Write the structure tokens for this entry.
Amino acid sequence: MNTTARYGLVCVALAATLSLVEMSRNHKGMVHQPPERKRLPGELVRSSRIRDSFPIRLGMVTTRGLSDGGPEQEECAKSGIKLGQIGEDWIADKCDVIALDARCVIPATFPSIHARQRLFTPLLYTYASELFEAPDQHGSVGVWKPNMSSWELKQTNGSSVPCADPGAHTMDCSSPDWQRYYAENAFQLASRYSAYGVLATELPTSDSYSSVHAKGYSRFGNRVDATSSFLSAVHDPSRFMLVVSSIGFEALIGRATLPLDKLHTEPELPGRSWDELNGLFDGAWSEGWIYPYWANGPLSEDFWEIQVEAADRAARFDNVFIASIAYTNADELEYGLASYLMAAHSQGRLVVQPMPKYPGEPIDAGMSLKVMMREYRRYQDYFDAPLGGPLQERHEINVEGGTVWRRKFQNGDVYVNSHDKGSVTVSLTGAVLTVSGQRVSHFTLGPHTGIILHYPTAPAK
């Protein structure tokens, strides 16, 4: 038998063997994924989550309510309870960005979701300045050892800054040793669970550091410097995404911030951590966006502008931005969503996390996946507003009583009155539909309110 014939028989036998292996896998319930077709330059990638008519995207940071049968506020991250199949399926169908604690997933969790949702961005929840003595603890990227005591944040008297969590230590984000340890362990953690990267919480800019009497932390600017040092050392987009908790980023630092590329310039962000730290992270979790869950109402108009600009910047450059919006009723939710729509761009990673504030529930109830599922069912008409894509940037227009923000979409319009005082009345040329289905041709918006309107011919949900 010549060489060519022998090679042909080997190929036939190999093909038959591979076919039997594949049949065996399918018989065991494994789904065969055909090889991905090579895309043409500039070709748009379609996905089940590319919904051209519905611009509001969902995402969240969640540590609770993940199991299929447990209560809404089950402490899954602290107890090591895994994400259930119902929650996994819901995330794959509804969410674009998720940050979960490593204790709540297995290595197959994120690949399974990503196979069904190609726009999905998986992250792991970590502490940037907290390390536990015991292994496998929530938010911890490793295990504290006695030789790490010099890496801890020190008080002015030289002793270590105490940590609120039992068995945990407060690490100094300015310590090069801690920076190297966190970076390497965060990378290994993300790799192990096929996450795109990590969410770093408890940075020195957060409120929890405001009363810490530590060396070099006497001013807010010092804490920003410590945060900058940490992010500069850890951020490496070639290895993993670094998404940060942005608590404190709106505050003025007390000095001019570094100059930025003109593409990144927004008028209210200079002088704040948003500009000082820009380029040192790949996204942000704005835990109290527009209406913080720990506040008694929405933020003032000045802070509204800062936060909308920060979200808009992230969306333009396809960075992650998780906007956690608190509300007590439908009107407050609509204000938050209308504000979100002022910054949304195409199919980006700017996502909404609903944070409902209802009597008898924890103040941060929205950290539960089950609560998010519940709120989506309750307000689906709001989250699935059929507006289509944006046709213009947000802009102010003069109306009766003052000015109002407006943005036009393919199938509707969005209005926001971000003012702290005064109501405005808007008159339209024709009747449109509210998210609840009411036909209106004029409406009044009080302070800190918004409205989402779509045309009667908008696509059905």
About this structure: The radius of gyration is 25 Å. Confidence is low (pLDDT under 50) at residues 1-37. The first helix runs from residue 3 to 27. The chain has eleven helices and 16 strands.
